Amino acid sequence: MPVSSITVNDSTLKFEMPNIGGSYEGKIDAAGSRVIGTWTQGGSSLPLEFTRVAVAAEPKKRVPKPSDIDGEWEGALEGGPQKLRLVLHIISYEDGMSAKLDSLDQNISGLPVTTISRDGAKLKFEMKQLAGVFEGTIDKELKTISGEWKQAGAGTPLTLRRKSVAGVEKKPGSSR
Helix (H, G, I), strand (E, B), or coil: what is residue 106? Predict the structure, then answer.
C-alpha cells in the first residue's frame, strides 16, 4: 500500500495513506528502536506501536510446483452502495501455496495473504492485516470458487472467477 508522504520532525514520525484514508503519528523513543503512536482511519483511532527488528537473511528460493488453481481469480464484494473488485493471485510451491490480493477500486495491489490452504475442493485464505478470512468451494470445472468473506465479524458472499491460468491470460471465447 503506497504511502503518499512521510516526515520525521525531531522525534515525531508522520505518514499518510490516502488510498485507504489512513494516517499515523508517533513518537520515536530515545534509542530509536520503537515508535509509539496512533493510527487514524475512517474517523476512528487506534494505538499502534512499531518496533525495530533485525533484517532477516535472504529467504530460501521457493521451487514452483504449479497446481490446477494457480493463476488469477476475480470477484467483487458488495456491501451496500459500495462494490470492491478483487483479484486473487495464487501460486503453488513444493512447500505449499502463496497468494496476494489486489483491490482494484482502492488502487491497492499485492496485499500479502497471511495463510492459504486447500483441502480437495475447499479453499481457505486469511489476511490478518485486514482481520479477514475467505472460505470457499472450487467447482469441478475449475472456473469458480464460491464462498464467504468474513471481516470484523460480518460475512459477505464472494465468488471468484478464473481470470488467467498460471500466468496465461484468459482470452475471450477460450475455455481456460
Answer: helix
20 is in which domain, residue-wise? 5-51
How far apart are the C-alpha atoms of 64 and 48, rounded to whole Å?
Answer: 36
141 and 95 within one domain: yes
pLDDT in tens, 92-125: 999 999 999 999 988 889 999 999 999 999 999 9
pLDDT digits 0-9 by tens, 19-44: 889 999 999 999 989 999 999 998 89
Is residue 168 within 8 A of residue 161, CB to CB? The reply is no
Grid cell listed for 74: 476475480
Contacts of residue 77, defined as CB under 8 A and 6 or more positions apart, other chains included, come to: 83, 84, 86, 149, 156, 158
Task: Decide the pairing of beta strands 122-127 and 115-119.
Answer: antiparallel
C-alpha neighbours within 13 Å on the C-beta side of residue 173:
0
Count up the domains in the chain and report the number. Answer: 2
One domain for residues 20 and 99: no
Work out the widest C-alpha separation in the chain, in whole angstroms.
62
Gap between the Cα atoms of 39 and 8, Å rounded:
16
